[in-house]
């Protein structure tokens, strides 16, 4: 049976846990999406924008020098960093904005952590002439100042969130409060495979293009499927996008990489699937970092895009079924992988993607030379250079 | 089902031709002793039912006043079990007033649905409101709350369709909490929703008393809202007084506001 079920559940995860005010809007969105999903012209238009505007398909690139460095498996990079706006996020924002337009909505709101989803939303809103407000924690605004500036140039209003940890979780709370208040006119464009049904399935469907292309490209280039696919997991949209078309291929090992921050046992991490337990946050039941009373813990990661105490419900399901293995990589390991890719391949990766790279490097050395690892290089790292400079002590 | 205090309270109000006043405070803000004392203050000043908020770290249905109160209460180390124990203490001193707990679903889920229903009912709590638990997801909790005699009170919004009202009616207990505005909790200058139409629509589908809440700041709005409902909920305006009291005693200001509102709605009766 295809998942999720009618109520939006992947096994025991998912559902809709939102204030009643929003329930009719979610029903309307679900109906509109189901109708669009069956409409070939919707997908044709999306494909047009993905090709001509985003620049798809993104290359699958054999990282020769990185592979040589690892002395093991051949590492291929799925270059989502080469998309317009510099990350996979735009695949989803174009899809959802086409849907919002179809529903007659004129105002778009979004939450953002690293700012990549905010930039991708501001971009799509500009492309279709819609009003756009992006909620962003003040802590994230400071560490991702470049993206704040980009959103403003694109005509979006960036609303700083001062509540709680002032990061992605709080930005999402505030975006939901905006939506509760302006539900009649506003489309909430969620950036990950999280949130209430139908967002997890809808965002997954829009990000699946990553895996569909990867499957074709890896077969063209190597004549077979990869042994391993590695992707970082915050909310989990880039991972779900690349994993999903491979779920039935049991021989392909799927590895999701969470942020271990300062270390899994320090309490300062964002490894929700490794260290959390099932709970309810932001509209769905999934793994959550929380205390005994169910109060949500603050996450920590050097990468703003992974700094989130929740995770998409389908990932919780894939963890429980064992189909995907979820590991974790520390800030320090991610920084090393970041530098390694810069120097071996001339590619500056996003710190989020550097977590997946670190895991791939770990695994490659222990695999034979004819093995194939695909890493989803979900974004580029221009936005992170200041953070990296500070962490390496080269500045400030 | 045995007549619980909520049902008894609304029947008594109806017999006297009066509108009820439900007052809300966030537990543990600034501390639990103050909360217990303020419950008494509000009841003495005329509150007919009392809602006690269990603070949650991510209250998406709440505006700034309750967000800040919740954050402070949690920073002070507030625990769910302490709040339930406080309710038991209140119940020992006052047998009549209906007590309602309001919190988000995750604290209830982590406590254990059955454990929560049992312990809350055992402490003398009469009702439970969970703003992020729509009826579609409430079946399991409802089984436990029904078993222990705790009323699981539904929220309905101006956006709620007739179809949804009909579907949620069988799961509604105690009274219906009608959210007056599309928005989060917090005092407002004006309420623009057509309350007559809204409450008529609700009453057509659910045969329970109607309470209106969200946005009622003081006596003037209370008087404006009274004709359409059986009771009204005042929350953020009270919590705001607690915030404004700072290190001082919030009780006199809270008592004065509750009295003013009570007086305003009695004039309407």
TrEMBL record, chain A:
One of its GO terms (cellular component) is cytoplasm. Pfam families: PALP. It catalyses: (1S,2R)-1-C-(indol-3-yl)glycerol 3-phosphate + L-serine = D-glyceraldehyde 3-phosphate + L-tryptophan + H2O. Residues 55-379 form the Tryptophan synthase beta chain-like PALP domain. Keywords: Amino-acid biosynthesis, Aromatic amino acid biosynthesis, Lyase, Pyridoxal phosphate, Tryptophan biosynthesis. Pathway: Amino-acid biosynthesis; L-tryptophan biosynthesis; L-tryptophan from chorismate: step 5/5. InterPro entries: Trp_synth_b_CS, Trp_synth_beta, Trp_synth_beta/beta-like, TrpB-like_PALP, TrpB-like_PALP_sf. Its EC number is 4.2.1.20. One of its GO terms (molecular function) is tryptophan synthase activity. The modification N6-(pyridoxal phosphate)lysine is found at residue 89. Gene3D superfamilies: 3.40.50.1100. Its cofactor is pyridoxal 5'-phosphate. PANTHER family: TRYPTOPHAN SYNTHASE, TRYPTOPHAN SYNTHASE-RELATED. Belongs to the TrpB family. Tetramer of two alpha and two beta chains. The beta subunit is responsible for the synthesis of L-tryptophan from indole and L-serine. This is Tryptophan synthase beta chain. It comes from Desulfofundulus thermosubterraneus DSM 16057. The gene is trpB.
From TrEMBL, chain B:
Keywords: Amino-acid biosynthesis, Aromatic amino acid biosynthesis, Lyase, Tryptophan biosynthesis. It catalyses: (1S,2R)-1-C-(indol-3-yl)glycerol 3-phosphate + L-serine = D-glyceraldehyde 3-phosphate + L-tryptophan + H2O. Transmembrane segments: none annotated. Its EC number is 4.2.1.20. The active site is at 51 (proton acceptor), 62 (proton acceptor). The keyword Hydrolase does not apply. GO terms for cellular component: cytosol. InterPro entries: Aldolase_TIM, RibuloseP-bd_barrel, Trp_synthase_alpha_AS, Trp_synthase_suA. It is an enzyme of class 4 (lyase). GO terms for molecular function: tryptophan synthase activity. It comes from the Bacteria. Pathway: Amino-acid biosynthesis; L-tryptophan biosynthesis; L-tryptophan from chorismate: step 5/5. Tetramer of two alpha and two beta chains. The alpha subunit is responsible for the aldol cleavage of indoleglycerol phosphate to indole and glyceraldehyde 3-phosphate. PANTHER family: TRYPTOPHAN SYNTHASE ALPHA CHAIN, CHLOROPLASTIC, TRYPTOPHAN SYNTHASE, ALPHA CHAIN. Belongs to the TrpA family. NCBIfam families: trpA. This is Tryptophan synthase alpha chain. It comes from Desulfofundulus thermosubterraneus DSM 16057. The gene is trpA.
